[in-house]
Write a structure and sequence with these properties.
Helices cover 28% and strands 29% of the residues. With 174 residues, it is of the alpha+beta class. The termini are far apart.
């Protein structure tokens, strides 16, 4: 039995907005990725039009392998969940997804988003390092954040968002 020839086509990473049609995929991924069960309200909220740019499925060669879900809280963007299935990690999928959300937050104007923040379980040092590599800083620890998993405490990480307009104004004119 011979192996098929290696494909010369590049591997494709794509993203999709969340809809009622792919919500089942998000639920299935979350059941595998995260140690907690999310409520029906969580799934209703991630379909809201105002978070469309901040809640997306991640596909690798047309296979759904992860997702990222945020909610708007006044002028903050709270990153509720982000995960990629284990066999697809270390392929820059999470980095690409996070960078898309950071860029969308920087260009969002109603409301203007001042920061993105999230919680990371204190035992998850890999996740903390991942976010720190993307410009997030630890700003505190929330004790007893998690009710049904141990350890219960979570780091609070944040990244201040500079709007695209501000960055454009700071660039010298040539």
């Amino acid at each position: 039995m011979s192996n098929p020839p290696a494909s010369s086509s590049p591997l494709r990473v794509t993203f999709a907005y969340l809809t009622h049609r792919n919500l089942g995929t998000v639920k299935k991924l979350n059941s595998v990725l995260f140690p907690i069960k999310y409520s029906d309200k969580f799934y209703q909220d991630i379909l809201a039009p105002e978070v469309e740019d901040f809640c997306q499925l991640i596909y690798y060669n047309d296979v759904p392998v992860g997702n990222l879900c945020c909610r708007l809280e006044n002028k903050d963007l709270y990153l509720m969940t982000m995960g990629v299935l284990a066999p697809y990690r270390s392929k820059q999928l999470g980095s690409q997804a996070l960078n898309r959300v950071i860029k969308a937050a920087a260009s969002h104007s109603k409301p203007k988003i001042g920061r993105i923040y999230l919680h990371v379980q204190v035992s998850n040092t890999d996740a903390k390092r991942f976010y720190e590599r993307h410009g997030f800083k630890e700003v505190g620890i929330k004790e007893d954040y998690y009710k049904k998993i141990v350890p219960r405490d979570a780091w609070i990480l944040e990244r201040i968002i500079e709007s695209e307009d501000k960055e454009d104004q700071e660039k010298p004119q040539s």
